[in-house]
User: Fold these one by one.
Assistant:
Number 1:
Amino acid sequence: SLSIGNSGAAFIGNNTASSSTAAASLGAATAAAAAAGAGARVVNNVAAQTLSVSGSLGTANVAVGVNNTAKAIADGVNGVTSTTGVTATAKTTATLSAPSAVGTYTFTLFGSNATGVSISAGVTAVNDLSGVATAINDKTASTGITAALSADKLSITLENKQGYDISLTDVLNTTTATNTLTLTGGATATVLGALVGTDSATVGGTLSFSSDQSYTLGTSAGTTLLTGASVGSTLASVASASVTSVVGATAALATVDGALARINSARADLGAIQSRFESTIRNLGVTTENLSAARSRIRDADFAAETAALTRGQILQQAGIAIVAQANALPQSVLSLLQ
């Protein structure tokens, strides 16, 4: 059978799904006890599991190791895109906020770097974290982490666009050791300070899955990666796209990309169908030509053969007449001799 999907604005776009940011999941903050090890990086919440991806092209399994970063998992998913038709991007976002008091805060920062980078920044007012944001951005080249200060200066959004974990270790206010900062990842906020039970934390990344057609994700273990054992994609259609905000415009770009991919796929399907029609038409044309030739041979006279047959008949007729004439003349000749 021949068919193509509906290409209306409400039926094409970007089919999306995301990893979990609930407590104890990849995207949630996880903390370690104070003095657990100077400079020790806390691991994320991911458990070892098999991630199954069932897309429009087929199904493939991706092995997820314990404490894998979002980047590593996305790389695994993208490694089987040719089999599934599903791609994945990774990004890590965390929020640093709520200094309990002024003073100089120090900590070790990890992003894409394997060796921690020391950060030291002064907080002159509990409602102004600009000094901390500046200190983190000064090390972006080493960590891959950017810090965006909120308009009210009360919080900082940390981001690693590659999907590496964001880790703060050995958080300390050198002015007063009991002072703290709060690191939030997903649904979990962790208060960090040398004397409050936790001084280190890690926030894992978030995975965003995309395809121009629907798909299903599954996991073999728990909810540290997905919100359930099986998660289906949701269509962000062209008809529902909005560019009234930066977030909406960014999502609209992905939606348009998905719609274009779907249209290109439909064009390829139509091209294949057209090729099949053209091949069938050519075959029918050859059959018609052969039938016409056979019909002509049956119904039309062969002029050369008929002319030869006519000539032969005329020769035989003339020969017969001549023989009859000679036969009639013979008795007359005999009588004339007798007379």
Number 2:
Amino acid sequence: MLKPPTFPPLGVPLIQAVAPAAGVPTTFATVLCANLHGYDALAEVLPPAQVVALLEEYFSLLTDAVLEFGGQIIHLAEADSLAGFGLGDCRHTQILEALSAARSIQRRFARIRHAWQARFSIDTGIGIGIHRGEFAICALGSPTEPTLLVVGDTVNLAGALCRRARAGEVLVSNAVHGTHELAAAPRPGGPDFLCLPRIQLRGRSVPLDVWCAPVPARLRMAGAARSNAPDRTDAGREPGGEVAGG
């Protein structure tokens, strides 16, 4: 019988806790996937060394927010990142913590967004997707230099929500929106989640229910930055924000 996975203290890379093995245990967690919109435009016009400096600033902000709310960074790759909340803890979903981290990321990135726009005349933003479910974390490849791999439909769905999210948005699945923790969370006078049209993912027979978390304002992307954000058919007002567009 496989033992439940164990995870290192916050801030310690997960690769140090996962050894290459044939039998890989799985875990339930709330997964936050984030994508930096406008990254392609930055990489096109800036020297690689300068892009690295910008990514260091971006990932530092993201990591600080995730760790502040009890999450763990799972994977970082250029414009994309993956974090987990409640890893190895079946008693607490940490959905509220994941949402708080997502809102903190959006709020903190506003200053960086304005600074980058002033310096490079390129619009940037962050799209975030949150889903909850089972997945596996394994280390594959060379025993001396293994590569961390996150496997499971949970990660795929979180990534799909992330790719669907526009700059400044936080999209959640029904597995997150339908939990009793979120239903019991106080919203004193604030806007509720907005139900968006269901997403039909390639290769899946059942569409995915999608909800948009309240945001202070919708970001409007221009030029090449739009390439990271696919068009959606959900016209109307975002909760607490502007008319949807861009």
